[in-house]
Amino acid sequence: MGIVIGDKSEWGRGYGTTAFRLGVRYAFETYDLNRIGAEAYANNPRSIRMLERIGFRREGVLRSAVRRGDHFVDEIVFGLLRAEWHEMGP
Fold first, then answer.
1. C-alpha distances in angstroms, 20 versus 3, 27, 79, 83?
2. Burial grade of 7 (CB within 10 A; 0-12, 13-18, 19 or more)
3. Closest C-alpha among 44, 6, 65 to residue 52
4. Are 8 and 47 in contact (CB under 8 A)?
5. Is 38 within 8 Å of 50 (Cβ atoms)?
6. How large is the angle between the packed helices 15-31 and 45-54, nearest 10 degrees?
7. How far apart are CA 90 and CA 54, in angstroms?
8. What is the pTM of this model?
9. How far, in Å, CA of 6 to CA of 78, rounded?
10. Helix or strand or coil: residue 24?
11. Gyration radius of the chain's alpha carbons
12. DSSP letters of 40-81?
């Protein structure tokens, strides 16, 4: 699942967090998953904060994994377990 909010005037209003949180809830409740994984580029602090706010934990870093223009950036790997999700009281 990816989220794109094209109109920058709408950024920072929580729309992405709400949408992602609903997607996570749907995945856990509908598909009975035990774990959901996510990735974010290290140069995208908004995505990183959103994932952490929802409860995802950093699990590792894929160093220089993605080419962005003329340079490479790290990809941060996140995970969220069903038990952690329920502890947070979604």
1. 8, 10, 14, 18
2. exposed
3. 44
4. no
5. no
6. 50
7. 9
8. 0.88
9. 24
10. helix
11. 14
12. EETT-HHHHHHHHHHT-EEEEEEEEEEEETTEEEEEEEEEEE
50 to each of 21, 39, 46, how far by Cα in Å?
A: 9, 11, 6
| pLDDT at position 90 | 57
- Tell the residue number behind the tokens 């409740």, with chain if given: 29
How much of the chain exceeds pLDDT 70, in percent?
Answer: 99
Tell me the C-alpha distance between 6 and 80, whole Å.
27
Q: Is 2 or 66 the better-scoring residue by pLDDT?
A: 66
pLDDT of residue 65: 97
Q: Which amino acid is at 81?
A: L
